[in-house]
Write a structure and sequence with these properties.
The structure holds three protein chains of three kinds.
Chain A lengths: L6 E12 L2 E8 L14 E10 L5 E9 L10 E6 L7 H7 L6 E4 L3 E2 L9 E7 L4 H12 L4 E7 L8 H8 L4 E5 L8 H5 L6 E6 L2 H13 L7 E4 L10 E5 L4 E5 L5 H7 L17 E12 L7 H6 L2 E3 L4 E9 L2
Chain B lengths: L7 H5 L12 H13 L8 E4 L1 H13 L8 E4 L5 E5 L5 E5 L1 E2 L1 E2 L6 E9 L4 E6 L12 E2 L3
Parallel strand pairs in B: 1-2, 3-8
Antiparallel strand pairs in B: 3-4, 5-9, 6-7, 7-8
Helix pairs in contact in B: 2-3
Chain C lengths: L19 H5 L17 E2 L19 H14 L4 E3 L4 H18 L4 E6 L2 E6 L4 E6 L10 H6 L5 E8 L2 E8 L8 H4 L4 H4 L11 H10 L7 E10 L10 H4 L11 H4 E12 L6 E11 H4 L3 H12 L3 H6 L3 H12 L15
Antiparallel strand pairs in C: 1-8, 2-7, 3-4, 4-5, 6-7, 6-10, 8-9, 9-10
Helix pairs in contact in C: 11-13
The chains are: A alpha/beta, B alpha/beta, C alpha+beta.
The complex binds flavin-adenine dinucleotide (FAD), protoporphyrin IX containing FE and FE2/S2 (inorganic) cluster.
The site of protoporphyrin IX containing FE (HEM) has 24 residues of chain C, from strand 6, strand 7, helix 7, strand 8 and helix 12.
Chain lengths: 328, 143, 346
């Protein structure tokens, strides 16, 4: 049941919404009696893509993308994808290969970045493509008269997606944009001042931005319970290594641009996953031994668990070494 | 609170943004609620006192939107419990014995370790429901 | 061909009993001859035809009478149904889930017609025919959770998910095994499970919580829990314990068969889509000892389970006062033959 691979959808529109961002709209495949489930703001789906690598071999990519369409609209799902520079293929595949009429497989929505239901007010801080989860969150909050503000920074007016429509829809009192090319910067310290008790803060963007916001919040005396973040973590690549599966007695090679999870899937080994981004905990796997050093890239394991060397999150973490023996 | 506090002068001398000596717990809670209603993020709540007192202050704090996980508390003084009678829902203050009598409906209550933050009280359940009158000896349990 | 609903009581005259077909489908909860807590969670997928798992929300012959009993409980004590203000979206999610499931499973009894957000709901067994606007509370006679759970067997708790925990922030609880929604509302997973013995030390709750935090929409799960109840009383609440507690002293060797009931809770867990909350329906099935022993494997097995139940569990479940009497009575139905592992009948 953890094989959250889900449903087939048709791409009904592909739009360039900023220099390096495309928006994709999905609807259920014609003639199927499937209806898209409702979802909550902050949810993502995992998109499965079958592409070809440089050598012409078929490869499967599975990337999580936040749903940015209105949670109240069950006729379609929309995601927006940034074309990343050093892509191993996933975002390039979405940009270069996917066209209207194509069929893709997506998972059921999963929410690892929900709006705190009891919050009195919500402040969203977005950097670049980090805007996507907030689009759905704001839509849902606006529908029930929730209080929120968005502070949205991007590199240039042409790089930033959706800022114009967001300003128009919610007004300048709720949406502030900050264009780096025009020298505008978000002053986190100032924005955290004078917020009423019960305010929650959400940040999604590049790692340094998340760190800066968390630091400012701590300095301003905000409790951790009121600060939420989501980083679009992609599995970092590194040196190839061997994974040995103790129970099933198999050896599998993990390539330099592959995660352990991807390597297992390519070898038809059933493994649990949900977020594929080191956040949900589903892919936690027991380590029997490691000839080398484990690089923990997740947000899930505690410091102690990492130091113990007994557990690894196989969706994002790797071995810097020769061989990793897993209890699988 | 007033009475028994010879620390008042020293505390006042600390020049807190707001310092107030409340005559009773209810007046203190009312004033705290008012102060919190206009407070901003960055304000943190610290409570020291008996369990019943901490519970009531926490409730004012959480009602004002503060996550209880962020409230720091330190127990001082008696272990007397506030007890909520599960039958009539009445609260009995300063319970030091187990079993104890509900000050509202009069049932003899077993005071359980089950605690509700929302009610700021431990749960009291009729101890002789199965055989009325079959009540174990009263013990000083929470001093 | 619909279900024949019975007219019976769960208080005072206690006329509840199971028809032979309903005995056959009883969800007997013991896969082996002993019992201990475990993380017994499995996917909640439709099961065998005629079984309680055939439909994801089971409706049986006791439906109409159970709903009448619920209305009586609520009349005496409105605090049995409560929802904190931030749970309104989850309440609508629940209403949709139940209406969709029941109208698909039992079209002869329930009908849901939707035109945009104008919904038309017909519940024939209870004689309800309402049109309302989905999302607009003022168009329903009650808030959505109360409205739909007054028409659905079983108790309901709805959990908000935040700070890596689940918070019981809404519920309808009138057929419970001795716990209080009014006291527990607002607590988190570990807090409301506080009174349960042994399971915390065994790591049961830690693992169950981790699992639930990742529960996915569209992949509900279920588990069985059990206890025993004297007389077919649905409302064994702590609120009324001083009224029903003495029932436990009235068990004698002569009345075990009719008075003592095994009470099984079929609990399911569902991620709700709009709110990201989790709903926990707790469906209670009662069976008299005399009905239970009509199935030889059940009689043998329950005798062994009850005889060897750890004392902590027996105390917690409130069985201690009458356990020996029931074990003695059940021993007549245990010929010592081996039983097969699992739920299948011998
Ligand atoms: C919960 C969640 C939600 C997300 N939502 C969105 C969304 O709404 N929109 C969106 O655009 N993205 C989103 N992402 C990110 C997305 O899933 C992908 O990670 C992203 O599209 C990049 O995928 P890719 O396959 O093109 O690149 P990947 O190959 O996965 O690489 C991503 C990054 O890794 C680095 N990298 C890759 N190869 C190398 C190398 N050889 N050497 C050094 N560095 C390298 C680069 O910095 C590159 O930009 C989300 C992620 C998560 C976890
Ligand atoms: C999230 C939904 C759940 C809710 C709302 C819930 C609620 C409760 C409540 C109110 C009690 C009674 C506690 C008391 O004595 O006051 C209880 C008991 C218990 N729960 Fe849960 N529970 C949930 C999920 C689970 C899960 C997933 C497990 C899995 C292991 C579990 C295991 C138990 C056990 C073993 C008991 C003791 C039961 C007995 O012996 O009769 N619960 N639960
Ligand atoms: S799949 Fe979520 S942490 Fe690995």
């Amino acid at each position: 049941m953890s094989k959250n691979i889900g449903m087939q959808v048709v791409v009904t529109s592909v739009k360039q919404v900023a220099d390096t961002v495309k928006c994709f709209r999905f609807v259920p495949v014609d003639g199927s009696d499937m209806v898209l489930p409702r979802f909550s703001g902050g949810s993502h789906v995992v998109v499965t893509m079958k592409g070809k690598d440089a050598a012409g071999n078929t490869v499967t990519y599975r990337n999580p993308y936040s749903l940015m369409s209105s949670p109240d609209d069950s006729s379609c799902f929309e995601i927006s994808v940034l074309r990343t520079e050093n892509s191993r293929g996933g975002s390039h595949f979405m940009h270069d290969q996917v066209k209207e009429g194509d069929i893709l497989t997506i998972s059921n929505p999963v929410n690892l970045f929900p709006v705190s239901a009891g919050g009195r007010k919500h402040i969203f801080i977005a950097g670049g493509i980090g805007i996507t989860p907030f689009m759905a969150m704001m839509d849902a909050l606006a529908a029930r008269n929730g209080k929120f503000e968005l502070h949205y920074g991007f590199r240039s007016r042409s790089h930033g997606a959706y800022w114009r429509e967001l300003e128009e829809r919610y007004g300048h009192s709720r949406v502030r944009t900050y264009c780096q090319a025009e020298g505008q910067m978000i002053d986190f310290g100032e924005l955290l001042e004078h917020q009423p008790l019960g305010t929650h803060l959400y940040v999604c963007g590049p790692a340094p931005m998340i760190e800066a916001v968390k630091k400012s919040a701590r300095e301003a005396g905000w409790p951790d319970e009121n600060v939420h973040s989501e980083e679009f973590l992609a599995p970092p690549s590194g040196q190839p290594f061997i994974v040995k599966l103790k129970k099933s007695q198999r050896n599998i090679m993990v390539g330099e641009h592959q995660s352990i999870l991807e390597a297992l899937e390519a070898a038809n080994v059933d493994a649990n996953f949900l977020c594929r981004g080191g956040a949900c905990g589903q892919c936690e796997t027991a380590v029997c031994s490691a000839d080398g050093e484990i690089e923990h890239n997740d947000h899930y394991l505690s410091k102690d668990e990492r130091q113990s060397g007994k557990k690894i999150m196989i969706c994002v973490s790797r071995l810097n070494g020769r061989e990793l023996v897993l209890d699988l | 609170m007033k009475g028994g506090s010879n620390h008042a002068a020293a505390l006042r001398a600390l020049n807190a943004a707001d310092y107030w000596e409340a005559p009773t717990i209810p007046t203190l809670l009312t004033r705290l609620g008012a102060a919190l209603s206009t407070a901003h993020m960055g304000l943190r709540l610290y409570v020291a006192g008996t369990e019943g007192f901490i519970g009531q202050v926490m409730k004012v704090g959480t009602d004002a939107g503060i996550s209880f996980l962020s409230i720091r508390t330190e127990h001082r003084g008696s272990l007397a419990r506030r007890v909520s009678c599960v039958h009539c829902k009445g609260i009995t203050e300063n319970v030091t014995t187990n079993p104890a009598t509900c000050s509202h409906c009069g049932l003899t209550l077993l005071v359980r370790d089950h605690y509700s933050r929302r009610i700021a009280a431990f749960q009291g359940v009729c101890i002789d429901a199965e055989v009325p009158g079959d009540v174990p000896p009263v013990e000083e349990a929470f001093r | 061909m619909g279900i024949q609903f019975k007219d019976e009581t769960f208080r005072d005259s206690f006329t509840f009993k199971n028809s032979p077909q309903t005995i056959k489908r009883f969800p007997f909860p013991f896969p082996e001859d002993k019992y201990m807590y475990s993380v017994n969670i499995e996917p909640h997928v439709p099961g065998a035809k005629g079984s309680v798992y055939e439909h994801l929300f089971d409706v049986d012959e006791h439906y109409v009478s159970e709903m009448r009993d619920r209305a009586l409980v609520l009349k005496e004590d409105p605090l049995r149904c409560q929802a904190l203000p931030h749970m309104m979206t989850a309440q609508w999610d629940l209403l949709e889930l139940i209406m969709e499931c029941k109208s698909k499973s039992y079209p002869e009894h329930f009908t849901l017609e939707k035109q945009g957000d104008k919904w038309h709901w017909i519940n024939r067994p209870l004689g309800i025919d309402d049109t309302f606007t989905f999302g607009d509370v003022s168009t329903l006679p009650y808030e959505p959770m109360e409205y739909i759970t007054r028409q659905t067997q079983g108790d309901f708790a709805i959990m908000d998910q935040r700070d890596n925990n689940l918070w019981m922030d809404a519920g309808m609880v009138t057929t419970q095994a001795d716990w209080s929604l009014d006291f527990d509302i607002g607590m988190n997973f570990m807090e409301w499970h506080g009174p349960v013995p042994l399971a915390h030390q065994m790591g049961v709750f830690e693992r169950a919580l981790k699992f639930l935090l990742n529960l996915q929409h569209g992949h509900p799960v279920r588990r069985l829990n059990w206890t025993m109840t004297i007389n077919p009383r649905l409302d064994t609440s702590p609120e009324n314990y001083h009224k029903w507690g003495k029932d436990r002293t009235e068990v004698t060797p002569d009345n075990v068969g009719d008075k003592v009931h095994l009470r099984v809770e079929l609990q399911s867990l569902w991620r709700l889509p709009r709110s990201n909350a989790i709903v926990f329906p707790i469906r209670c099935y009662l069976i008299k000892m005399s009905e239970l022993v009509t199935e030889p494997k059940w009689g043998r097995r329950f005798h062994r389970v009850l005889k060897d139940l750890p004392p902590e569990l027996a105390d917690y479940k409130g069985l201690t006062r009458y356990r020996d009497t029931v074990v003695e009575w059940l021993s007549k139905y245990d010929d010592g033959k081996p039983t097969s592992i699992g739920f299948g009948l011998d």
